[in-house]
Amino acid sequence: MQSLTPSPELMKTKKELDHIVRIEKAIAKKYGKESIANPRSLWTDEKEEQYLEHLKEYYSKTRKSLENTEKIEEDGFLIPKNLITRKNERKCPVCKIFSFEVKDDLYMNKFECCFQCYVQWVEDREERWQKGWRPDHEKKEQKKN
After folding, report:
1. pLDDT of residue 108
2. 24 in a structural domain
3. How many domains is the chain partitioned into structurally?
4. CA angle, 123 as apex, 100 and 99 as ends, to 5°?
5. Which helix (DSSP H) or strand (DSSP E) does residue 82 occupy?
């Protein structure tokens, strides 16, 4: 003879389902019925077509931008042309020393020389430098020796 009382496993799943229903009702009350709706129920064929069209547009734009990214060789490295906003000289035109220091960028932009050359040749003589005066390379080499 079969018992009319439900099994313990069925009781457990029923309690869990009741709990889920109460949570869904609370969410629907607070945020609206759309918040608990299955996303598939709101998806239509028109939305699917729009979605696929947007995907095609997105990928065609990204493909074009990748194709249009021209690369330039700079000191042995390939750099996208659109990232270069100005000619970035790393070699001082006065002393011919190559530098990666950030402080040299400031002096290269403003005075067209590195920090060392600024201290040696430009500091307190900025007007003369701005007028075009540059040190004679032969005199510099004599000072080094």
Report:
1. 81
2. yes
3. 2
4. 10
5. none
Instruction: Annotate 82-119 with b (16+ C-beta within 10 A) or e (fewer).
Output: eeeeeeeeeebebbeeebeeeebbebbeebbbbbbbbe
Please list the alpha-helical segments (H only) found in 1-136: 8-31, 39-42, 45-68, 102-111, 115-117, 126-130
What would the pLDDT profile of 109-142 be if each residue is shown by its tens digit?
Answer: 788 888 888 888 888 888 888 888 888 754 544 4
pLDDT per residue over 72-108, tens digit each?
777 777 777 766 655 556 788 888 888 777 777 778 8
54 lies in some domain: no
- Is 72 contained in some domain? no
Is 93 within 8 Å of 108 (Cβ atoms)? Answer: no
**pTM for the whole thing?**
0.36
Q: Please, are residues 92 and 99 in contact by the beta-carbon 8 Å criterion?
A: yes
Which residues form the domain of 30? 9-37
Token readout for 38 is 């299955």
Mean pLDDT score, 12-30: 89
CA diameter of the chain: 116
**Residue 108 covered by a domain:** yes
